[in-house]
Design goal:
The structure is a single chain. The chain has 6 domains: 222 residues, Jelly Rolls (Sandwich), CATH 2.60.120; 103 residues, Sandwich (Immunoglobulin-like), CATH 2.60.40; 70 residues, Sandwich (Immunoglobulin-like); 72 residues, Immunoglobulin-like; 76 residues, Sandwich (Immunoglobulin-like), CATH 2.60.40.10; 79 residues, Sandwich (Immunoglobulin-like), CATH 2.60.40. 2% of the residues lie in helices and 42% in strands. The chain is built from 1 helix and 50 strands. The strands form 14 sheets. Strands 2, 3, 4, 5, 7, 10 and 12 form a 7-stranded mixed β-sheet that branches. The chain is elongated, with a radius of gyration of 62 Å.
Length: 656
């Protein structure tokens, strides 16, 4: 049923009555088309194209042609002004195919009817064959600028016999569009029995004035025939095929020609993209074509089936052809060599390939998770990562190349230090040592205080505590480091404290301090609770100087400091005396007061009057005041020893 409907459709499309058809048409060939007998593209270029030999209009080599003039250009933009000729015109900057350099015919139609284009076809056209006469047209007037007063282009398609007799024609009013839009218009014509050449013509049927401005492009005249369907192996399977250089691939092309020919003939053709165009394949005249491609050169092959009436198959102008089927023989990707990589254990390693769109790695460290990475990155490489690796590089066409490389993971040195911590006295030195199997060099930082920063066993004499980092390097450049601390002890410092004072019979705690020391001793040891500690208790009976000696277990020297301890004698004040001359207790005798030569003694009567005063008390008071014997009674005193101690005070009874 479907085949019968298709046949009926083609018969309607291909059978036309010779004569005038003045109705507008937008028909296009619904079947297969042949190669163009006429194919006017107007060429391409950067400036204006040449004048045409087949028009009654006037040529001008500038933008904005006036009424009755045309030009051949690739743009409607005036290069001098940067804009279109008229605000009401579309701005067009490329031809119908989208080529920015492609020319089109730029027409400002005449007030009178005129011929845009005429072309005699003197080839031997096949009789009783349907042809399509078509052109692409663009109405320059914007839809927004159009109204019922605007003149729309009315293009008449005409096919004439060589003697000028009109065989068929149609008029096509080109409506305005919102944006610049190329529209295809066509006329179908079936050659009668006595006609084998024609004249094709495009003419202006609308007057000039407000409107009727247009562009023409891609004027064609070619055969139109039945629908031809093709495919690889099955009809409709027309996706382009790919294979790689050097591969051998078998193909089967299938074709199906719809109804429309009384006695159809078939011919497979090939286009090798070698400049010869489409060429008949000898002997391939059925709807099936089997072939093999085994090519060592990248190339593109196109295949199509041409069809015509049996009597016309030898005339290219009479054939129609299917859409091309293509087979591309693709080059292999160009993949640069991948240099081998050497890294140290624990470092990251990266290798990369190029030249393709897909990559697949194989090697010791390759997993499903990383086999398609590019670049291939392996973090913290272990020794087991070492080995040979390959990568298969595939380009967009599916052709693959395999490259090889090698990854070497070198072991890091194992470094050992003889002692991580050293302690020395300031000004002294010590040997610090590191060792590592496989190391060829050592480097210590900082180098300050080292006898040789590149030695495995330098002598360190830093002035302050220093942390040294030693780096061992193997012949492969792998490194490892370790840390050594050298503590520097400064000389000990001793401080016995400030001089002290005390009364006889009292005790004090010495205030010794020390730095950088842990061994202490006091000399002399007289009256000390423990001479081996910093703060012994001292109970001397007389003035004495103690000396503190400090040192450390590291023997960084001995420091000394002394403290003087003043021991004041105890003052005993009698509370009575009897200066009566009997030789017994005749004076107020204050023992030990003379040992305080700066001391002051003041005696007052009960009225607060000073009756006696002395300094140093080298002569005891005998109960007189200014040589006058004082009466019996109670007197009061104060004693200032002038040594920072509180004043002594009290009373004394004078008895006669």
């Amino acid at each position: 049923m479907r085949r019968h409907l298709l046949s009926l459709y083609l018969l309607v499309a291909l059978t036309f009555v010779v004569g005038n058809a003045n109705a507008q048409t937008a028909d296009v060939c619904k079947g297969a088309l042949g190669d163009a007998v006429v194919n006017e593209t107007f060429g391409a270029g950067n400036n204006f194209g040449a004048a045409l030999p087949y028009t009654t209009m006037y040529y001008v080599s500038s933008f904005c042609p006036n009424d009755g003039y045309y030009t051949i250009a690739n743009s409607t933009v005036d290069l001098n002004s940067g804009g279109s000729c008229h605000d009401t015109w579309h701005t067009v900057t490329q031809d119908h195919t989208g080529d920015p350099n492609g020319y089109f015919m730029f027409i400002n139609a005449s007030f009178a009817k005129s011929v845009f284009y005429t072309q005699p076809i003197n080839l031997q056209l096949c009789q009783k064959t349907t042809y399509e006469f078509s052109a692409y047209v663009l109405n320059l007037i914007k839809l927004s600028a159009s109204n019922d007063q605007t003149i729309q282009p009315d293009i008449k398609f005409t096919i004439k016999a060589p003697d000028g007799t009109i065989l068929k024609s149609s008029e096509n009013v080109v409506p305005p569009t919102a944006g610049p839009e190329w529209q295809k218009f066509s006329l179908f014509f079936t050659t009668p029995a006595n006609i084998n050449s024609v004249i094709v013509e495009l003419s202006n049927e609308a007057p000039g004035g407000n409107g009727n401005d247009l562009l023409l492009d891609d004027i064609q005249f070619r055969a139109c025939g039945p629908v031809i369907q093709t495919g690889f192996t099955t009809i409709g399977a027309n996706q382009p095929q790919n294979q790689c250089v050097g591969q051998s691939q078998n193909y089967t092309l299938k074709a199906q020609v719809g109804d429309g020919y009384t006695d159809p003939a078939l011919q497979w053709q090939i286009n090798k993209s070698d400049g010869n165009g489409w060429v008949d394949i000898a002997g391939q005249t059925t709807d099936t074509y089997n072939f093999t491609i085994n090519n060592n050169v990248a190339s593109v092959y196109q295949y199509r089936l041409s069809a015509a009436e049996q009597s016309n198959i030898g005339s290219p102008e009479c054939r129609v052809s299917s859409a091309p089927l293509s087979v591309t023989v693709n080059s292999y990707p160009v993949v640069p060599d991948i240099p081998p990589v050497g890294v140290c254990e624990g470092d990251a390693v990266a290798i990369a390939a190029s030249g393709g769109v897909a990559y697949e790695w194989a090697g010791p460290a390759i997993t499903n998770a990383n086999k398609n990475q590019n670049p291939l990155v392996i973090d913290a490489a272990a020794l087991a990562v070492s080995g040979n690796y390959t990568v298969t590089v595939t380009n967009a066409s599916g052709c693959s190349v395999t490259k090889s490389t090698k990854i070497t993971v070198n072991p890091k040195p194992v470094i050992t230090v003889a002692n991580p911590v050293y302690t020395i006295c300031k000004g002294a030195g010590t040997t610090i040592a590191a060792s590592s199997s496989g190391a060829v060099s050592y480097s210590w930082t900082p180098a300050t205080g080292l006898s040789d920063a590149t030695s495995a066993t330098p002598v360190a004499t830093p002035t302050d505590t220093t942390v040294y980092i030693v780096v061992a390097t193997t012949s492969s450049g792998c490194v490892e480091s370790a840390k050594v601390t050298v503590n520097v002890l400064p000389p000990p410092i001793a401080d016995a404290g400030k001089d002290r004072a005390m009364f006889e019979g009292q005790s004090i705690t010495l205030g010794g301090t020390a730095k950088n020391a842990n061994v202490y001793s006091w000399t002399p040891t007289t009256a000390l609770s423990d001479p081996t500690i910093l703060n012994p208790v001292a109970s001397p009976t007389d003035d004495i100087t103690y000396t503190l000696h400090v040192s450390s277990q590291y023997n960084c020297g001995i420091a000394e400091s002394s403290v003087f301890v003043r021991v004041y004698k105890k003052i005993i004040v009698p509370n009575s005396f009897s200066p009566n001359g009997d030789g017994v207790n005749d004076s107020w005798n204050i023992e030990a007061l003379f040992t305080y030569p700066e001391s002051e003694l003041t005696v007052f009567n009960r009225y607060g009057q000073v009756v006696f005063k002395s300094k140093g008390y080298d002569k005891p008071w005998r109960g007189t005041s200014n040589g006058i014997t004082l009466p019996t009674g109670t007197y009061y005193y104060t004693i200032d020893l002038k040594n920072g101690t509180p004043k002594l005070s009290g009373w004394v009874l004078l008895v006669k």
